[in-house]
Write a structure and sequence with these properties.
Order of helices and strands of chain B: HEEEHEHEHEHHEHEHHHEHHHHEEHHH
Largest sheet of chain B: 6 strands, parallel
Largest sheet of chain A: 5 strands, mixed
CATH topology of the largest domain in chain B: TIM Barrel
Bound molecules: iron/sulfur cluster
Shape of chain A: elongated
Structural class of chain A: alpha/beta
Oligomer: heterodimer
Radius of gyration of chain B: 23 Å
Distance between the termini of chain A: 52 Å
Number of domains of chain B: 2
Number of helices of chain A: 9
CATH class of the largest domain in chain B: Alpha Beta
Strand order of the largest sheet of chain A: 6-7-8-9-10
CATH architecture of the largest domain in chain B: Alpha-Beta Barrel
Shape of chain B: globular
Helix content of chain A: 40-55%
Number of helices of chain B: 17
Largest interface: A-B, 53 and 55 residues
Helix content of chain B: 40-55%
Strand order of the largest sheet of chain B: 3-4-5-6-7-8
Number of strands of chain B: 11
Strand content of chain A: 15-25%
Order of helices and strands of chain A: EEHEEEHHHHEEHEEEHHH
């Protein structure tokens, strides 16, 4: 049994960093009181230990998960890392500790609280990703597509492949306002950049025209007399609405300035590999 | 007429068509625009709660036919519009690039004749696929009576094709759609089926052979315009699945928008509850391994308005319940109300490592409120009395229960029950 301790682990916030926390927990035979990423607010009650990210250590843990538990378990944990589950690092650690004790069978122990919470979080992540794949809305700025999203989970890394396969021939920027990052896709390459407090510029006339057509389609396609607001809301939660074209009102937003597409172009260039 | 107007008229004209799923093919992007995913993606939900996945419009609503139930019929007084193939292709691309839609659902009224109509549709698809390299999803409707060669070319560009069966019997067809016949509908349906089969073997044999409607074929029929029973409809549905290898049969509650001597009067409420029950039954046929004859028979040719078909079946077969969740096989679990396909799978997986109780069932996504009447957990029964009436009362929640009691006292409307169920969005969570 690991020792319970009063220390918390502080790591660099990367997945590899988290695996290094797992490494330390085993190496020192201790269970930390918490794990937090360096940028997060500090838990003042406990002493923090900085856990260095060492690729050799994280690779060992990754291999151990695949071999001693299962490749599926590794996939699950990888996805759990992107969820918005509170104290997800600790939950992942507890899940892995159970997994190293029980082996591959842990994946079927869905009635166990430590396993269940991971599955639920990952299911919630998958659901939000599905939602976002549908509800994300691009606008065209002079040939470059721009979208703003505000997901609860950290979706950008998970959505990159889908977006690339669908819009691979386009240039696009997907800005995650909630996590302060943007996915930038230039000439066939993806990049994640830090981006905070970006305000999408207003759209030009052609873009407004298409938006108007879409809103008209949206309004017309509903069968009148069959309104069902609760059903709509349960399939498409309100929190998505504010970034969706069909619920935006063009009238009170100003016409775009000539700079608008330049602003987006600059974003795109931020993600370009530096020469 | 400007594009905004056309879009309005041609969306309005297409919207009573319910079939709008976009699933069944997986196609990665080719570096250009578009991909298709097997599960389909809902891009929005309309005010009526329906999923919006495809740009669903008619190429034109200027119809030469005169089907009595249709707003677009020749003798009807509606505004007419037609998209040029170019307009529609461009609109599809602009919507698709912005991630508004998953693709195009293209249908059309019969303009001039079936062949001319198909040519227009073909031209639209051709611009999309060949000129713009569009790889998103396309569902195209075959126009009854069109030349096979045209259908064959459409099938090579579309992911899914459908021919509307329209009405559940030949008699109804004769009565309401004088320009159509059973043959003009079933012939293209059979043709599409053969083509799909042929192309499946071709694709296996020569790599890169173009696939014909790779997402298969579906159809649709109107419910409640004519007098068929649920039993007749369900039997037809099962037969269509078998004979034509259909992927989906869609039901569309008839909304009386026009008057006609052989039709329900305008203003008659559409039979939404019936439509809902048929979809539930269809679900049971496709995923729960039920047969049509288990759900309805000559003595009971209509679905129970109060209970979904699965509960209603279970209540008629109380002798096979309760079942032990820790032991019962997968098929048996599937038949328990409150346990869905996913629930049954999860139960089978989870019980390998521990014994399941009511609480763990909840965690596995089982609707315990309904299931508890039909199951044992380690020998324990949580349903009170295993008798018909007690369970029925237990299953009917809130409004439905009130209605059930009222019905016994002789007054009842089903609208509220249905509203309740619809709001719960029950389809698929039986
Ligand atoms: S063929 Fe019949 S159902 Fe189709 S659009 Fe014309 S009138 Fe309507």
């Amino acid at each position: 049994m690991p020792r319970r301790t009063d220390v918390i682990y502080r790591y660099d916030g990367s997945f590899e960093g988290l695996l290094c926390c797992v490494y330390r927990s085993y190496y020192e035979r201790e269970l930390p009181a918490g794990i937090e990423s360096a940028g997060a607010e500090q838990m003042q009650l406990y002493a923090a230990i900085d856990v260095e990210t060492d690729i050799a250590h994280s690779a060992r843990v990754a291999r151990a998960i695949r071999e001693k538990i299962s490749p599926q378990a590794y996939g699950l944990v990888r996805r759990a890392y992107f969820t918005c589950l509170e104290e997800r690092e600790m939950h992942i650690l507890r899940f892995l500790r159970l997994g190293f004790a029980k082996g591959g069978a842990v994946m079927q122990m869905t009635a166990d609280a430590r396993v269940n919470i991971i599955y639920r979080a990952v299911r919630n992540l998958a659901l939000e990703k599905d939602h976002m794949s549908g509800f994300l809305r691009f606008s065209d700025y002079g040939g470059i597509l721009f979208a703003q999203i505000e997901p609860k989970n950290d979706l950008l890394p998970l959505m990159a492949a889908h977006l690339r396969s669908r819009f691979g021939g386009e240039k696009y920027v997907v800005y995650d306002r909630a996590h302060g990052r943007a996915l930038v896709h230039g000439d066939g390459t993806d990049a994640l950049i830090e981006l905070d407090g970006f305000e999408p510029p207003p759209a030009d006339g052609a873009e407004r025209h298409i938006r108007g057509l879409w809103r008209r389609f949206y309004d017309t396609v509903a069968v009148e007399g069959r309104e069902n607001p609760r059903c709509r809301m349960s399939h498409m939660p309100k929190r998505f609405w504010k970034n969706m074209t069909e619920f935006q009102n063009e009238k009170d937003s100003p016409e775009r300035t000539a700079l608008a597409s330049d602003t987006v172009l600059q974003l795109l260039q931020l993600g370009e590999p530096k020469l | 007429m400007d594009l905004m107007e056309k879009l309005t008229v041609l969306t309005d004209a297409a919207k009573y068509d319910v079939a709008c799923t976009s699933s069944g093919v997986d196609r990665g992007g080719g570096g250009g625009l578009g991909s298709a995913s097997r599960m389909g993606i809902c891009h929005s939900f309309a005010a009526d709660g329906r999923c919006i996945s495809l740009l669903k419009v008619l190429q034109s609503n200027a119809c030469a036919f005169d089907c009595a139930y249709c707003v677009n019929r020749r003798s009807s007084d509606v505004r007419r519009a037609s998209f040029t193939p170019r307009e529609l292709a461009d609109l599809t691309i602009e919507f698709y690039r912005r991630n508004y839609i998953e693709g195009l659902f293209l249908s059309s009224a019969v303009v001039r004749d079936a062949d001319y109509t198909c040519e227009q549709m073909l031209e639209t698809l051709h611009i999309l696929r060949t000129e713009y390299g569009f790889r998103g999803y396309i569902h195209a409707k075959a126009i009854p009576g069109a030349d096979r060669r045209l259908l064959a070319r459409i099938g090579l560009l579309a992911d899914r094709m459908s021919v509307n069966i329209e009405l559940p019997s030949q008699e109804s067809l004769r009565l309401l759609a004088p320009d159509k016949s059973r043959e003009s509908i079933l012939t293209p349906m059979g043709f599409v089926k053969d083509k799909i089969q042929e192309s499946c073997t071709d694709v296996v044999r020569y790599r890169g052979a173009p696939a014909f409607a790779p997402a298969g074929q579906s159809t649709q029929m109107i419910i409640g315009a004519t007098g068929e029973s649920d039993l007749q409809i369900l039997k037809l549905t099962a037969a269509l699945y078998k004979k034509y290898n259909l992927k989906r049969v869609f039901f569309s509650a008839y909304i009386p928008m026009v008057s006609g001597s052989n039709l329900p009067a305008p203003g008659t409420p559409p039979p939404l509850l019936r439509e809902h029950r048929l979809y539930q039954a269809d679900w049971l046929l496709r995923f729960y391994r039920f047969e049509a004859s288990e759900l309805l028979d000559e003595r009971q040719p209509f679905f129970d308005p109060l209970l979904d078909p699965k509960c209603s079946w279970a209540l008629r077969h109380l002798e096979s319940f309760p079942v032990e969740v820790n032991r019962a096989d997968y098929e048996t679990l599937l038949r328990v109300p409150g346990i869905g396909v996913r629930g049954a799978r999860r139960i089978v997986a989870a019980r390998k490592s521990c014994r399941l109780d009511l609480d763990s069932l909840k965690k596995l996504g089982v609707t315990v409120k309904r299931a508890r009447y039909f199951i044992l957990c380690s020998g324990k029964y949580y349903g009170g009395n295993l008798v018909h009436d007690a369970i029925l009362e237990g299953l009917l929640s809130g409004n439905a229960l009130k209605k059930y009691r009222e019905e016994r006292s002789g007054q009842m409307t089903i609208d509220d029950i249905m509203r309740e169920e619809k709001q719960a969005c029950l389809v698929g969570q039986m």
